[in-house]
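step 4 of 6: structure.
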Amino acid sequence: MSVIPAALATATAVGGAGAAAGLVLPQRPRVPVVGVLTAGVGVAGGAAGVAALGGDRWADTLPGVLPLAGTYLAVDALAGLFMAVAGAVVAAVAVYGIGYAGGHGPHGLGSRTAQAVLPLFALTLVLVPVAASVSTFLVLWELMALASLLLVLAEHRERASVRQAGVWYAVMTHLGLVLLLIGLAVFAAEAGGETFAALRAGAHAVSPTVRGLVFVLIAAGFTSKAGAVPLHAWLPRAHPEAPSPVSALMSAAMVNLGIYGLVRTGLDLLGGGPAWWWLGLMTIGGASAVHGILQAAMASDLKRLLAYSTSENMGLVLIGVGASGLFAAYDDRPLAALALAAALLHVVNHAAFKALLFCAAGSVLRATGLRDLDRLGGLRAPMPATAGLFALAALGAVALPPGNGFISEWLLLQSLIHGLQVPGVAVAVVLPLSVALIALSAGIAAAVFVKALGVGFFARPRSRQASAAKESPPLMLAGMGLLAAACGALALVPGLLGDGLDRAVAATGLPGSGAVSGGGLNVRLADISASLSPLWLVAALTAALMLAAGLPRLYRRRRRRANARLWDCGGGPPTPRMAYTATSFAEPLQRVFDDILAPEQDVNVTPVRESTYLVERVRFQRRVPDRIEHRLYEPVLRALAGTGQAARRLAGGSVHLYLGYGFVGLVVLLLALAVGW
Amino acid sequence: MSAVGYAAVVGQIVVVGAGAPLLTGWMRQVRARLEGRAGAGVLQPWRDARKLLRKEPITPVGTGPAFRVAPALLVATTVVTAGLVPLLSTDTPVSTHADLIVVVALIALGTLALALAGLDSGTAFGGMGASREMTVAALVEPTILLSVFALSIPSGTTNLPAIVDGAVDEPARLASPAGLLATAALAVAVLAETGRIPVDNPSTHLELTMIHEAMVLEYAGPDLALVELGSQMRLTLLLGLLSSLFVPWGIATDVSWAALAVALVLFAAKVAVLGAVLAAAEVFCAKVRLFRVPELLAGSFLLALLAVTASYFLSGAS
């Protein structure tokens, strides 16, 4: 008896019970009961994922569930990896969510609708990788999108901007769905079957042109879900406006499924493809990484900053997936396996630190009601635990040792650096550029998180709300503690994941890379002489830190630290308004990337009425718009609106005209049938 | 074997730690003489450090744990890096851990700690320094990693002792176009990372042009001593790294006390020469405007990119 079906059945039952409980229970017990059941979904789904990573496989067909098509389910190690990540994130965030929604009253996340949908969203996050046919996959995918849309809209009473974000998200996610639907339908029609097994078997018989078309459509759909440019516009809107636990689920679990879909269809079902597919994917990845992190550097809204950082990290993952496909296309399969392992490990690491970052941002939002870094500050004194957890997660996000993000970026860089063995001029040009883009995004990421931590949590409070902040309730801290433990484990002993990661890579048909296998403490690459042992590094750093801290003791006995005033240039004590804000911190970077970011600034000078030389008021305004959005979306939106306006003239109000339209339509249809078929 | 190996690691840390103030004193002295001044003597940084270490530790009001930990963390990252980089010997017990990317990341970690401390002080100067330092660090990163890439191509690994060993065995690698371009790119990156002219002026007292000094303006006493020691060690270490990569002769590749002693003397000589050259160059250059620094770094990035592509196209891989 396999663990997987039992765990999946449990997850589904518990998720259903959670949804029912959210609908029927009164306000007071609703949040804790639904929270516990949602955590149950996460634990059960995660258990199924871990079992699959352990080498278990399972497949089944439920003919009665979806009419006409039937439901096909299968779990292999690749699906297991994404299920385990989603399950772990769901479990920890659900615990956090009990504390978060508890303080929110009957609206927002604690409302009946939101609490009924939350377990369903958790369930779909776990179940999407289980789907093993096109129709099952698309149904679950759409359920996930709808559930998340309802959750994004949970706080619509509190802010008008939530509704706008909801519209953007609804439109873009359905645009993505349409692309996927077309792509997968064409693929299924050409391959002669809609189950994944049939697609895999029939993929080689499909003509190269159709395969290319299918890949382009599918890649557009999946990268949109992953928040990669240019179809990313929903992400920086929806993630900040959603309640923080939902942001954490979306950013740490949902966007991963875009990567899952891409790996599953691109590498597994289509069985790889020519180099141009993967070069395109790497271009998208590189552009997302740099664009995302630059926008994050400009953002002073904490949650918007984190959302753009998600876009950056998914860009890095896409570079890894693209490199993997590229190496496979040139038949260097061990290197392809290494690149894919790096990408998948980065998905895991990103999920851990980004869930924690969003939860910590949620705690700040709950304690102060502020997301604006310029008005925060000084939170390390009233909220020491939250500040510490944010710092830990930020260390993962900046990809420096001893954070967890460093290990996956190191693997990714190693795979790219050794990729020059692969022949081809395109490779020789693209790989160095990718390394440079990864390095640039890592460098700017360091500035971004120094800004978020240093301006948001350090120095002194810049507003009344920030100085009145209080530490979060224990359940929120417990949820964040779970995520922090995951970050720590991934940073110190990535080998724990080893064999599972190998099996996940092997599920796509590549040989296992053995990069972090063996349960050992070291990350060692088989074909390449390079190794990394995070635990050794931490030990060395700790020893050196004690040495350095002890150095001053050689010269004097231990003395109490004396307090002194800050240097104020003799002008009286500096006020918090003199401290650097997030906007001023980002100003040099904005100037450096002026040509790319194209900021808009506006100075309004109002003179005193009698004289043009005396100024009454000066108003200065600066925005850094998302330029891709500016250039790509606005013309399309304008054209659509223009077409709509023009089409109004067709509806003149005359019944005869409408009857005429019907007649012409019928004639055209009949002609088409007569001539074409 | 292991005794010599451990001695080499300890020797590297000690020579960087104890030699760093001397190198700074030496560079100031060279500079002073070229400018026609008598100079304070090579030992002056040592005397400064001793004086600062004896003072009472000061915590400015309003600063937090990050401000207090950062100096020790800066020194700690430099100490670990000094142990890893093959300055004296390529055959040490830690040589398997000496990955070039790890070394670069550890140095960046020290920068990041100081920037956070600058913001933690809550003053305008601290924030300004942190903001500028992180901007420069972000722009240097691509150059450094591309140079790493270029250096790792001939030996097929990013492991530093292996790269140095390879260069000792096959000196032609150093004179190849890729090697020379990578040297030039990395040299500019080192100038930026250590805050030397033309990127930053280490002896400035004008707050508005400061980068590094603005960030650490609030430090005093033993903390300031650690910050100064940390930056001096970084300069020594990075000059040492440059010399190991591009003038690797003399570094002990086998385990013997004699080789280690020779390596020690040669290391001191190489770093002293590099330091003197740097100090002399600084006399004739001015610091560039902060917003011209990106142009300089873009130039070095281009050199690094050329280094990678050159090593690909010229090494006959095609």
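step 5 of 6: annotate
 - Residues 63 and 122 of chain B are 7 Å apart (CA to CA).
 - Chain B touches chain A through 88 residues (CB under 8 Å).
step 6 of 6: archive
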